Amino acid sequence: MAEEFKLSSYSYQPPLSLIAQEPVYPRDSSRLLIVNRKDKSIKEAFFRDIVNFINPGDVLALNNTRVINAKLIGHKPSGAKIEILLVNQHTDTVWEVLLKPVKRIKAGSVLIFADGEIQARVLENTLKGLWLLEFSKGSAVLLKRAGKVPLPHYIKKEISDENQYQTVYAQKEGAIAAPTAGLHFTENLLGQLKKLGIVVVKVTLHCGLATFRPVKTSDIRQHNMESEWIEASAELEQAVNSAKAAGLRVIAVGTTSIRALESMAFTEKDGKNYIKSFSGQTNLYITPGYNFKIIDAVLTNFHTPYSTNLILVSTFCGLELTRRAYAYAIKEKFRFYSFGDAMLIL
To answer: Model-level pTM greater than 0.85?
Structure first.
């Protein structure tokens, strides 16, 4: 098996001190690693310096999903603590969830939230290792009264403001994890980019299990990618297709934007690639050998080991250059993961 298909090729461990526990302020003062695929160069800048690397007419695609209060802390009638992550909504009161601990959980079990105001009845255990729960209140009340922002497990520090884990352009509710590459943008920086003639567009991918569930198969190609909701407008379609026709770049902010746009891609008879606006599910899993049709450059964070995100970035950048970039980032003490620094791959 070729090295790029081995799960072990996506193993690394940054020092715990480099795993960012809170965002920097202002957001665009974070560091930026610039990786050039053509000359294999690696250099440093600050995030706000991206204005020097994006050209007028280029399209910058942002994921405008908004994180919902998907984390619930409750207890069993015995008083034992229970933690839930809402994953998929089936009806206003029925959700598919990740649940821990699962010991002694079975169909018919009752769970209690919000000081007894909300209860949930366990319906069944699904084939995906999830549980189906029916809540006593609808989703609006459930999220408001019992829900919290679902920070990743490696962030141990509580955030002072829930908006710290939202992009400044977050709009469409539905994600259970933030599209973290976008956390670096400020309204001011976006305004600068627009004044320079950069076309800023929005696409939606509601980050779900597929975004953060690690690969566990020794051959990464055997990983089963969960589906996530994507959506794009006719305006986005026009902007991207105009750029592709004119030979201008489409720059994706985050792996979720890449997967959304590549899911909508098709090749015309003239051999050029375009997108068709679409609303629905995607389970696109990008591994080495994938032919990128739409994306010309990527703005992304530093990802966790064994993640589909790291595999995607390595596919775009090349495994060896990705390894070099990550080794450089560790050596120079860049900050890692959701609240960490960013990388621009040209």
So the answer is: yes
